[in-house]
Design goal:
Chain lengths: 359, 225
């Protein structure tokens, strides 16, 4: 468990955070300038907070009261930055072994071979970082951090410099680390879709303050949280299973719980499970089943909750899972929506983004 | 071309002075280069200016200041004598003179080298378990190596060419402080010294070229590794 109680002033910016993370993976979400990176640097020991306390598994890393401030090299906290920051004068293998060599035998948790295999980087070992692609570099950086056997892995927008295709190929590795290696992850991102592929536990940071903390779907509609999420484009992330694909028609049929969905054609075998993203803005609500529209998807459900934030309504519909749709006040009034009502969610096939595969 | 023994003596002395000049100015050069590149502190501009002073002062003035400070009757003369270090009229004095004159060149190059190293790499090294000193040697200095090498070469070359500060501070004594430039100057002041001066001029060019080639080779290796 990670306990953070930090207060720090820098010019006219104040960081005030008091949270506890108990989960395998926790994401820190917030707009730029919210203090996410500063917070990470403090946990890693690279920035000294003015006041407060940082405790991990009952070991005090920092305490202004007790006068404790462990240097970064004694905290055993792995840090993966937005840029991979591989050592340019070392080969991939030497980079990987850099932290390992400085980890006492008793604390070592992984073999080089295991990490190399997990991240699929065995063919890169002899190369120099400058000859690797972006995705390869980030995987090596991840491996290097892992081999130092950290008890917590900090990741500061590790995928931000990668394009969408590469991102979706790295995320499964992160899930491996979280689930199979059992290393807790603290993951900074400003992309909701990216976070939800890794964890539902989030800390929402805004202007130096943790405005909310907990299960994403529980806190997403809170007054202080929703505008922040909306600024990034609110996205529903649905786990789906491929049923069949039709390249000619340009659609892939997937199963989402009991419901069937058509998503843009993707070349994945039947039975593969993947995430599909739908922005809350892209969902149309209808009282009745509508015919004669080009919209290919109609999901039937019941209204779970209607939350009212800054003249917009977020309607949560139970379609097997929770689905958030953003509509205006006027629309809610005109349809006379009430919690418990039967409702149809219309979703264009092409408003569905295909995310990465689940393991 | 035949090089007579007295020339070998001059060449040997010059190389020894230049070698020790680099050796003595490298540790403070690296330390101050790091300090100026990585740290903010009050008086930084003053320190920076002080370190660069020999670059803009006429070497003769530097030599005179050295005499005033470290000469036998200078401010620190008594102290230096008490620890058994005699600089005046001694090759060690020539080392000091050329080290002081060459120091700004060394410092600038080292500083640029260190400034070129992404400080975030040092932070990564720390999170991977490296202490500050180890990080400095395995990451910072290692990546700044081409700059440090270039600085060492500049100091070496500057030392080989040092004339003004040396002749004022430690005079022109055969076998002790008469380095190549001073020997050339001496020969040129003799009625039949032209050919001897020319010999040393050629030697000087050759030594400089070898040093240049050596540093080029070393910096390429440093970049590759």
């Amino acid at each position: 468990m990670l306990e953070l109680r930090i207060s720090h002033r820098l010019n006219d910016f104040t960081l005030n955070v008091d949270v506890q993370c108990r989960y395998q993976a926790t994401a820190i979400f917030g707009p730029s300038g919210a203090g996410k990176t500063t917070l990470m640097n403090m946990i890693a020991g690279l920035v000294r907070p003015d006041e407060g306390q940082i405790v991990i598994d009952d070991e005090v890393l920092f305490s202004s009261d007790a006068g404790i401030d462990l240097p970064p090299e004694r905290r055993r906290i792995g840090y993966v930055f937005q840029d991979d920051l591989l050592f340019p004068h070392l080969s991939v293998e030497e980079n990987l072994r850099f932290g390992l060599a400085r980890t006492p035998l008793a604390q070592r948790r992984f073999e080089v071979d295991l990490v190399v295999e997990l991240l699929e980087i065995s063919s890169l070992l002899g190369r120099r970082p400058q000859y690797l692609s972006g995705g390869e570099r980030q995987r090596v950086a991840l491996g290097r951090a892992l081999l130092a056997s950290p008890r917590l892995l900090l990741m500061d927008e590790p995928l931000a410099s990668l394009d969408q295709g590469l991102k979706s190929r790295i995320i499964p590795y992160l899930r491996h680390i979280r689930s199979d290696l059992g290393i807790p992850i603290l993951y900074v991102s400003h992309s909701v879709a990216e976070i939800l592929e890794l964890t539902g536990q989030v800390i929402i940071l805004d202007r130096g303050r943790a405005v909310a903390h907990g299960d994403f779907f529980r806190i997403a509609h809170e007054a202080e949280v929703l505008p922040l999420i909306e600024a990034q484009g609110f996205e529903n992330v649905l786990p789906v299973e491929v049923v069949s694909s039709d390249a000619g028609a340009g659609v892939t049929h997937v199963r989402y719980g009991e419901q069937a969905l058509k998503i843009p054609y993707c070349d994945r075998p039947a039975g593969s499970r993947l995430f599909a993203g739908i922005r809350a803005d892209d969902i149309i609500l209808a009282r009745e089943r509508v015919e004669g529209l080009s919209v290919r998807n109609t999901l039937e459900g019941r209204v779970l909750e209607i939350s009212d934030v800054e003249s917009k309504e977020l309607v949560y519909v139970d379609v097997g899972h929770r689905l958030a749709a953003k509509v205006t006040h006027e629309a809610v009034a005109a349809l006379g929506l009430q919690v418990g009502d039967r409702i149809y969610c219309l979703i264009k096939t092409h408003s569905i983004r295909i995310g990465p595969e689940m393991e | 071309m035949i090089v007579p023994t007295e020339d070998w003596q001059v060449i040997g002395l010059s190389l020894r002075v230049a070698f020790f000049c680099v050796l003595c100015s490298l540790p403070p050069g690296v330390f101050l280069g790091w300090l100026l590149a990585r740290r903010e502190f009050p008086g930084k501009i003053l320190l920076d200016g002080l370190c660069h002073l020999p670059l803009v002062l006429p070497p003769v003035v530097t030599g005179y200041l050295l005499l005033v400070l470290c000469g036998r009757r200078g401010v620190f003369g008594g102290f230096l004598e008490s620890i058994g270090l005699q600089l005046a009229f001694d090759w060690k004095g020539a080392v000091v003179a050329s080290a002081v004159v060459g120091f700004p060149l060394m410092l600038r190059s080292v500083r640029l080298g260190i400034e070129g190293v992404d400080p975030r790499l040092e932070r990564v090294a720390r999170t991977l378990g490296c202490g500050p000193m180890r990080t400095f040697f395995t990451v910072t200095l290692r990546l700044a190596a081409p700059g440090v090498l270039a600085g060492a070469l500049l100091a070496f070359a500057r030392s080989l060419g040092e004339f003004g500060a040396t002749i004022i501070f430690v005079s022109n004594i055969e076998g002790q402080t008469r380095t190549i430039p001073l020997a050339i100057y001496t020969f040129l002041n003799q009625p039949d010294g032209d050919s001897a001066a020319l010999r040393l001029v050629v030697v000087s060019v050759v030594v400089s070229l070898v040093a240049l080639a050596g540093s080029e080779w070393a910096s390429r290796r440093a970049r590759r590794r």
